[in-house]
């Protein structure tokens, strides 16, 4: 059994800020989104078993092959909605449906090709996504069973299927759910968010064929509307610089432990302090060069799935396990040096 967790890509503190905007065109969608998120979060807490999915992998699904289904909520909130595209169906006229389908496939492919993992549970779990959720819904989420995407309000956020790393990020919460099941609060919660950012970024880089040096290391690039002064939701390369906007405020993510944020909001700052392990991964990946999913990504995947990572792990616990994993897989080489150096640079001690 796993703990019911409701994970969103846009943090509550961003929506809180928007909800207080003087312009009702900006405030109204943010308030509606916060209300909807609160409802969905409560539903997750009332769910007894999330890890054991109600629907078993279909007998027709071949091992090592994705089984994707995209549904359309038609701006309602009943899940999953009306089926609009199944596995192997040709693309339709709805670009949002097509992007969701492609993003599910890209996520499946990275985990299979790079790490030998058959879907997010490792056993061919069907991948379901619902698009066009609610009206002016400013978020995307993983609810323990499926992906859900809003269309955005068009003023601050655009369609949430546009950035492929958003799709990958939310599905990676599913991988964490089926493996380490990190507690969604404080440092383990920030690690939960960081792991999703890491694999979201890797899915984007894998799809684009980018090396670590070629990648932008942004999470959610293309999601912010033209009126927003910003590039993305988060930056792994330079946490705290993704946006600086008169309505959204300034990106609050720290890059090192010197600026760690102690807060009771956002489940103890899970979307804020995730900048620290995010930056450590960026530093390790760029130090090693080449494709980030190959060596740095392999080390992070080994830790997530190795069975030693505890649900209440601290940053130091996670860092120590990455050092152990790097040594176990690559020996006393540049991989180990890069991982050690990365954590040292962000101020996280290894035990």
UniProtKB/TrEMBL annotation:
Protein family membership: Belongs to the peptidase M4 family.
Cellular compartments annotated: Secreted
Function: Extracellular zinc metalloprotease.
Ranges annotated as biased composition (Basic and acidic residues): 80-93
Domain of life from the UniProt record: Bacteria
Record organism: Streptomyces composti
Protein name (Swiss-Prot/TrEMBL): Neutral metalloproteinase
Pfam families: Peptidase_M4 (PF01447), Peptidase_M4_C (PF02868)
UniProt entry keywords in alphabetical sequence: Hydrolase, Metal-binding, Metalloprotease, Protease, Secreted, Zinc
Spans annotated as Disordered: 63-94
Predominant location category: secreted
